[in-house]
Design brief:
Elements lengths: L3 H6 L4 E6 L7 H10 L2 E4 L5 H4 L9 H12 L3 E8 L6 H4 L3 H18 L6 E6 L22 H12 L4 E6 L8 H16 L5 E4 L2 E2 L9 H9 L4 E9 L4 H12 L4 E6 L25 H9 L1
Parallel strand pairs: 1-2, 1-9, 2-3, 3-4, 4-5, 5-6, 6-8, 7-8, 8-9
This protein binds (3S,4R)-3-hydroxy-2-oxopiperidin-4-yl beta-D-xylopyranoside (XIL).
């Protein structure tokens, strides 16, 4: 196959990309994105601050630009993200307790209703665990509403759109030996045991020298899949874009039957949220980097 998406589709998977609405007018960007990928995640446009800038007043202008571009170009869409401590609008940052809990529920219902039946996977909850060795939840205004906020978010999401796969998404959870990975594993196991509706786990996979790729990532994916959830690589970028590491990540996904696909977090290095790391598959001029070829050959 000659594109990443077509190559991934040979095994029933997707190869996706994060899209920024304001870059779609750049023809080099849009040409690569349309050609190479068969899944799209909005890089920022479906987040809480973008979709509910004032309480109860939803705005899907930018989100729909990404969504409509994806559908017009034949791509499926991952929704990102409904409940998160970051990129909250000011009104939400100032809420607490039962008012914040209700605002979270109302937000999930409002966004999921707009896209009902149209989203392949939703990142319902993002980044709820703390870094480091504690294995604890991250402190946040949402966590302070009560530690059941995550399962409430998932139950709300299931009722709002029963057709979407519901994912928990996090970073620094790729290395099986890390406490954060173990904490996330215990939560997913508990949700499955108690019937909390969760369908998938997203591994962001922002690899760099501080949180490097480890070959036990495949073990992590296998162990989560064995709990009865799908897994996905949701925000892949790798400092320096070493071809071997990119190929390893693809091979890890391909080795796990429940791995749905891989999403890279941007098109060209210049589009990256950490462009100084040159972590992506395309150069700034739109040419393919060695890591591109390594990924294509691995798929
Ligand atoms: C990042 C975007 O890429 C940036 O443009 C934005 O300024 C901050 O958020 N984990 C996530 C993503 O789940 O939503 C983040 O995206 C990167 C880390």
């Amino acid at each position: 196959e000659s594109t990443l998406g077509a190559a991934a589709a040979q095994s029933g998977r997707y190869f996706g990309v994060a899209i920024a609405a304001n870059r779609l007018s750049d023809s080099t960007y849009a040409t690569i994105a349309a050609r190479e990928f068969n899944s799209v995640t909005a890089e920022n446009e479906m987040k809480i601050d973008a979709t509910e800038p004032q309480r109860g007043q939803f705005n899907f202008t930018a989100a729909d630009r990404v969504y409509n571009w994806a559908v017009q170009n034949g791509k499926e869409v991952r929704g990102h993200t409904l409940a998160w401590h970051s990129q909250q609008p000011g009104w939400m940052q100032s809420l607490s307790g039962s008012a914040l809990r209700q605002a979270m529920i109302d937000h999930i219902n409002g966004v999921m209703a707009h896209y009902k039946g149209k989203i392949a996977q939703w990142d319902v909850v993002n980044e709820a665990f703390a870094d480091g060795s504690s294995g604890a939840r991250r402190d946040s205004n949402l966590e302070r509403t009560g530690s059941d906020w995550i399962e409430v978010a998932f139950r709300t999401a299931r009722a709002a759109d029963p057709s979407a796969k519901l994912c928990y998404n996090d970073y620094n959870v790729e290395d099986w030996t890390w406490a954060k990975t173990q904490a996330m594993y215990r939560m997913v196991r508990d949700f499955k045991q108690r019937g909390v509706p969760i369908d998938c786990v997203g591994f962001q996979s922002h690899f760099n020298s501080g949180s490097p790729y480890n070959s036990n990532f495949r073990t992590t994916l296998q162990n989560f899949a064995a709990l009865g959830v799908d897994v996905a690589v949701t925000e892949l970028d790798i400092q320096g874009a070493p071809s071997s590491t990119y190929a390893n990540v693809v091979n890890d996904c391909l080795a796990v039957s429940r791995c749905l696909g891989v999403t890279v977090w941007g098109v060209r290095d210049s589009d990256s949220w950490r462009s100084g790391d040159t972590p992506l598959l395309f150069n700034n001029d739109g040419s393919k980097k060695p890591a591109y070829t390594a990924v294509l050959n691995a798929l």
